[in-house]
Design goal:
The complex is a heterodimer. By secondary structure, chain A is mainly beta. Helices cover 0% and strands 38% of the residues of chain A. Helix content of chain B is 30%, strand content 20%. Chain A: InterPro entries: NirD, Rieske-like_NirD, Rieske_2Fe-2S_sf. Chain A: Keywords: Nitrate assimilation, Oxidoreductase.
Chain lengths: 141, 845
């Protein structure tokens, strides 16, 4: 069950406005509807005010986290194990310093930074770049 | 070089033990070594004599057979059935049959036994039969066709089997026993009396202390039995089943050593006085004993096969402990059940004349070991008692607890230390304690490694808790420190976290993390920022905070901690929709409210189902519909049912004295009061209650964490029961409590559980792991041995006073409702939720 990573860095991707900071729930997730060239996608948005505690060892640092704390994550809302759109409703935490979300149905953990499933190497959720522009949340897709 | 001719091995007898010997010979490779010939007197191949009575209830000879002729042929064994050996010529080394003479180099006697027929004048009349072989059964069946009554002479194990067979043939049946009670070998007079009552209740007449003097022509029936006191009994059919005698005549005639009361004398290798000849089974006399059970016979067969191959096995006697079901009546006997072979032995007895149960323990003079036990009416105690006996496990301080009824002062299950090495841990993969221990000794240092090594707990998983306890215990005893940290974020157990929160008055997760979180997992450098927690510690801490302070779980500080069900106050189903369960305290609901539930279900297209806890579950609610659904439910007077929480669920009740002619208290009223008192109480795991209005127990309170059963004088309280995967009867904790006493006792019990249980540990498992068991729990709760009861009651009062309906709280706060949107930027419902119709309702497609 491999879920191909979306062409995350192709030139055609543009930034679009998604919602506002007030729509987010601190230390938890919400779902958003995203229109892309490839069709609509349900995205889970996680907001960790102040950022996840960044790992200090470079070896285990994902590129997206290197050097700075990331506050916002966008990841597939669809849980590949159940087929239900529920990832935004999982519990957010960190394991070995890496921010993760646990699927609310069968409890697998997905790394917020790259979508990789900790229990099953072959499973990976898509991720998108998101960031605040003032009080607005923008996503690259 | 010529192939040397194989020595001849002859086996006389093809009963259960004779056949087992053949199997052992095959298994141990004796067919390479010997040319084997087996003689059987009967025309049938070896069959299962233990289940002989089933021949009358439909099983035929073929299905009772233990093997096939093909098996013998396949292994090159010559099987000569229906050919009785009439003599052994030891000088010539031959056995003699009607067909001829056969040479042997080694010979095994497996001739078994024959039924003893007492020397009573008239015992050879037509219609006087025995009960041993399939042919005997055919004869009984034939005789029964023209009979209306039947008598079995002999009230032992086999006699009762025979009586059951006669009953099965629709005969008016009686049992005549010479001894003053039935089954004199296995039970004492109390047990015998109970057995008599039970067997008479089945319509079988029981006459004990009767010696038959003669059998003559009857007047109304075929035979008349005349007893020692001149009394008589008439019957059409008589079956003798007064014990067995060894079939030792061949051995006797050929000059082998025979015991005083019969039986071919054998040594530990199963050799007779002639080293060319061996004997096994009921014909063999070892250490002056005949073993009339199949298991010791099988052991002898194994030893004999080894002896024939110059192996070195020894028969060391056999335990005659047995459990059996006779005419539907459980009888069990372990070791020195009468206590007459153990000097200074002391006895404990339990007799319940209503339930017709009798149990007896025979304990060594120092009270430490079980030397025997006797059971009538309920063999469920047998396995545990046998472990104590067979493995010489030290008895609990109060041995009587081992035979008291389950559900009262039942003994704690044997802990990991007490289990013998042979105890089965995982029955799916047949893993014993010894297997687990050797896996640990072989380098498995945690539960996962032990599972991988032994496959234990990888089948049904029912042994998971036991395996974990055992592994932890064994690791600890080997000096391996077992990390009991709840997760990588806190180096504390759940219990320790609870105490920290309570003592320091910590009210948020972030404060707890700041002060007590561990820094492991956050890099090797100077980071001192707290971690985020995880899906283990966050809900656990959320539960602890709720148990201590009961602030709404929807508050901003608590919401990220909750499991999804608590977050949205509904139960997530497999397609991402939710089920909604409003509280229906005690299962009592007005027609008006029932109508509202129907209307809400119709309006939001919800599937409805009655739950096991006497409530109504509404399935298929979309996230974004939950607030509107609850708006209508709250409007109609409902409140949340906490079906989503590790918290008080329901208090089930029967209808009680208000309506029921048997009820002695108002069980519905009490159930409602209990549910109102404890609703919203969060605990390490869910809590289920029930209240029954009388001893008939229609509410099944003894399967609940807290069970209440009405008495004439008040309420009996049962605790720590469980249904589910590993059902456990609740135990009687306190009797005849007033309402107020009941509340107070439950307050303390629940708070003590909340304080000391592990995360996600139900009361049943908590109780089983509680050191000191039920006695300790009673000391703490009923006698206040720790001096904490005032505090426990105060804490419970705090929780009760702080209760508010979480849904009412949430729908009055627009900030909290923001979460109940399908998408933060789009109002459309999730298009991937697709329903289909089944039996007139919707379900996930």
């Amino acid at each position: 069950m491999t879920i191909a990573s979306a062409a995350a860095n192709t030139m055609t991707q543009t930034w679009q406005r998604l919602c506002t900071r007030a729509d987010l729930v601190p230390y938890s997730g919400v779902a958003a509807w995203l229109e892309t060239d490839a069709g609509p996608v349900q995205v889970a948005l996680f907001y960790l005010p102040g950022g996840a505690n960044p790992p200090q060892s470079a070896a285990q640092t994902p590129p997206s986290l290197a050097g700075h704390a990331q506050e916002l994550y966008a990841i597939d809302h669809r849980d590949p194990f159940s087929g239900a759109n529920v990832i935004a409703r999982g519990i957010v935490g960190d394991l070995q310093g890496e921010p993760v979300v646990a699927s609310p149905l069968y409890k697998q953990h997905f790394r917020l930074a790259d979508g990789r499933c900790l229990e099953d190497d072959s499973v990976r959720l898509r991720t998108w770049k998101v960031s605040f522009k003032g009080e607005e949340v923008w996503i690259q897709a | 070089m010529n192939t040397p001719v194989k020595p001849q091995l002859i086996v006389i007898g093809n009963g259960m033990v004779g056949h087992h010997l053949v199997e052992q010979l095959v298994e141990q490779g004796a067919t390479e070594r010997y040319a084997i010939t087996v003689f059987g007197e009967e025309r049938h191949l070896a069959y299962d004599r233990v289940h002989l009575s089933e021949y009358f209830s439909g099983r035929d000879a073929a299905s009772l057979a233990l093997s096939t002729a093909d098996y013998y042929a396949e292994h090159g064994i010559e099987l000569r059935l229906h050919e009785a050996v009439t003599a052994i010529d030891r000088e010539a080394g031959e056995v003699v049959t009607a067909q001829g003479r056969y040479a042997y180099d080694r010979l095994v006697l497996a001739t078994g036994s024959y039924p003893f027929v007492p020397p009573i004048p008239g015992n050879d009349r037509e219609g006087c039969l025995v009960y041993r072989t399939l042919e005997d059964l055919d004869a009984i069946r034939e005789a029964a066709e023209t009979a209306t009554t039947g008598v079995v002479v002999g009230g032992g194990l086999l006699g009762l089997e025979a009586a059951n067979a006669l009953r099965g043939l629709d005969l008016d049946t009686a049992v005549v026993e010479f001894a003053p009670r039935l089954m004199p070998m296995q039970v004492d007079s109390e047990g015998g009396e109970l057995l008599r009552e039970k067997i008479e209740a089945l319509g079988v007449q029981v006459l004990t202390g009767r010696a038959t003097q003669e059998i003559v022509d009857g007047e109304a029936s075929r035979h008349r039995m005349v007893f020692q006191d001149e009394k008589v009994l008439e019957t059409d059919l008589i079956v003798f089943s007064a014990g067995i005698r060894p079939r030792d005549e061949l051995a006797r005639d050929s000059g082998l050593e025979i015991g005083e009361r019969g039986g071919v004398v054998i040594d530990d290798s199963c050799l007779t006085s002639d080293p060319a000849i061996l004997a096994v089974g009921e014909v063999a006399l070892w250490n002056n004993s005949i073993f009339g059970l199949v298991a010791p016979g099988y052991q002898m067969a194994k030893v004999a096969a080894a002896t024939l191959l110059e192996g070195n096995e020894a028969f060391k006697g056999a335990d005659m402990s047995t459990k059996l079901k006779l005419m539907g009546v459980d009888v069990g006997s372990i070791g020195d059940a009468h206590g007459d072979r153990t000097p200074g032995a002391r006895q404990f007895r339990f007799l319940d004349p209503l339930k017709q149960q009798y149990r007896k323990l025979v304990v060594s003079s120092d009270g430490k070991r079980l030397v025997g036990a006797m059971l009538v009416g309920d063999n469920s105690y047998y396995d545990t008692l046998l472990q104590y006996y067979a493995n010489r496990i030290e008895l609990p301080e109060d041995p009587a607890s081992l035979i008291l009824p389950a559900g009262s002062e039942a003994a704690p299950a044997l802990g990991p230390d007490a289990l013998p090495a042979t105890a089965t841990i995982c029955s799916c993969h047949n893993v014993t304690k010894a297997d687990v221990c050797s896996a640990i000794d072989g380098g498995a240092v945690d539960l996962g490694a032990v599972k991988g090594e032994t496959r234990a707990s990888t089948g049904c998983g029912g042994c998971a808790a036991l395996l974990k306890t055992l592994v932890d215990h064994e690791l600890e005893s080997r000096g391996v420190e077992v990390d009991k940290s709840i997760c990588e974020h806190f180096h504390y157990t759940r219990q320790e976290l609870y105490d920290i929160v309570r003592v320091e008055g910590i009210k948020t997760f972030s404060e707890l993390m700041e002060k007590h979180g561990s820094k492991v997992g956050h890099g090797l450098g100077s980071s001192s920022a707290p971690g985020l927690g995880c899906d283990i510690c966050k809900p656990a801490v959320a539960s602890i905070l709720a148990s201590c302070f009961n602030e709404p779980i929807t508050d901003a500080a608590h919401i990220p901690l909750q499991d999804t069900n608590d977050t949205f106050m509904a139960n997530m189903q497999k397609n991402g929709t939710y089920s909604v369960v409003p509280r229906i305290a005690g299962g009592e609901i007005t027609p008006d409210k029932l109508v509202v539930l129907g209307q809400v279900a119709q309006k939001y297209e919800l599937y409805t189902k009655i739950t096991g806890g006497q409530r109504i579950d509404l399935f298929g609610a979309r996230l974004e519909d939950l607030p509107a659904i609850w708006g209508e439910l709250i409007e109609a007077g409902f409140e949340t049912g906490h079906a989503y929480g590790k918290s008080t669920r329901t208090v089930k009740s029967c209808v009680g004295s208000t309506w029921c002619r048997y009820g002695v208290q108002d069980s519905v009223g009490m159930a409602i009061r209990l549910e109102d008192r404890y609703k919203g109480l969060r605990a390490p795991h869910k809590l289920k209650f029930a209240v029954s209005g009388c001893a008939r127990e229609c509410a099944e309170a003894q399967s609940k964490d807290v069970g209440v059963i009405a008495t004439e004088n008040g309420w009996n309280l049962y605790v720590c029961g469980n249904g589910g995967m590993r059902p456990r009867h609740a135990e009687l904790f306190a009797t005849d409590l007033s309402d107020e006493e009941l509340f107070r006792t439950i307050d303390r019990f629940l708070m003590f559980y909340i304080r000391t249980a592990d995360r996600l540990q139900r009361t049943s498992v908590w109780r089983e792991n509680l050191e000191g068991g039920l006695d300790y729990l009673k000391e703490v709760i009923l006698e206040d041995s720790l001096g904490i009861n005032d505090e426990l009651e105060r804490q419970m009062q705090t929780v009760i006073d702080a209760y508010q309906c979480e849904w009412a709280n949430a729908i009055s706060d627009p900030e909290k409702l923001k979460r109940f949107r399908s998408f933060v930027n789009d109002a459309r419902p999730d298009p991937d939720i697709i329903m289909t119709s089944e039996r007139g309702q919707l379900r996930p497609a």
